[in-house]
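Below is how a single chain appears once it has passed through the pipeline. First comes the sequence as given, then the structure the pipeline wrote out for it. We keep one example in the README because the format questions we get most often are answered faster by looking than by reading.
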Amino acid sequence: MQTVIWWIRRDLRLKDNQALQTADPVNRVVIPVFILDPNLLKREAEKRKAFLFNGLRSLDERLRESGSRLVIRAGNPEEELSRLVKESGAAGIFAEEDYTPYARRRDQAVAENLPLNLLAGLTFHHPRSVSKPDGSPYTVFTPYSKAWKKLPQPSAVRNVPPDRFIPVPEHIQSLAIPDALSLEDFPSGEDEAERRLRDFLAGRVYDYREARNRLDMKGTSSLSPYFRFGMLSSRYAVLNVMDTIQNAPNSYARAGAETWLNELIWREFYQSILYHFPEVSRRAFRAELRAIEWNNDPEKFSAWKSGVTGYPLVDASMRQLATLGWMHNRGRMITASFLVKDLLINWQRGEEWFMRQLIDGDPASNNGGWQWTAGVGTDAAPYFRIFNPVLQGKKFDPEGAFVREWIPELSNVTQRYIHEPWTMPAEEQRKAGCVIGKHYPLPVVEHIQARERTLEAYKHSKDVLSGG
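Resulting structure:
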């Protein structure tokens, strides 16, 4: 019987997996392999690696229930796959295509020497499929999303029947899955991903348009880590939310589900940008904003990372990130804006820090989000749009519940002062048990002054690079 290899990368699932289905484990011996690539694992991203390793453990359990097992190898992917082909006599390698610059270089090197077959699956529509009439890629979200929605919908992949895998030959050896800390708030695995999707689409998605920006509410899906490692396929999620839109009980509910669909399209838009413009991983998309004279104050950068800037919503979000390895999307925008626009620190430093901390750290989405907030990307927020962290707090955490959850020093501060505690009179500070400058820091920067400094720095870059 013919043997093939299913090379798992960002598709830790059995359901709706085109690479696995094409490998055909019902009629062929399929060897599921994950390669611990030192080029990817060298990054200091302990929580994300823990989420991955726990996900591999969950996948191995699912495979063993189906009569197979996960094979773990470590080293250069081309060399390890070559060894596995020789050991097994495999006639082909099937993998889900990835779009990062490193993944594309890696896969090209493998394909030059081994029978690699790349299948779609990372996104609902391949980046090459969503293009302008002249074939060029979109760089603005709205026309991209309109074109995306007009394309024919791919149907879900036929799932492999349970208990139908042919066992992996015993002589194919495997390393142990690395030990990893448990992430209580984000259990890994395909079952958990599907449970969260069902729970979200059962009702909370209807309020998504209104609730998604509230940091004090459970208004988001919290599915991003599962999309990051393919424990949930984009196609499966999109088809399910499209059904939810069709069956929504009223226009309010329909608008909520449509808003979440747009967020999934934003994810694909950023994948498309990285695919067509790989240079964005190294520099700003907008050439006229590549000469900004950043301040890059190390002490202020440290305060931002540690959640002690003196701006409660910024600090609460950064502490959420440090604890969970995840941050609410509104918090990501606010903290990114503060780093770049208030502290005038290079957005790439924030991008790198997030990639170290986030369990859902995705090169395309993380880069796209940072360039958007910094105003230097493709479909970017205007560079003069600068979030006021106090007003953002009053709007999206109106009673201060989110701030109090993550900053215990401020737990007794009243709603009036919770987002600008430095304005508390001394008597109020005494009552709250929080002396500003002692128990909680004074602001590291004055927002209005910082805003003017940033606008001047951006304008100077445009003038320099335009010859003005």
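The mean pLDDT is 96.

See the next section for the split statistics.
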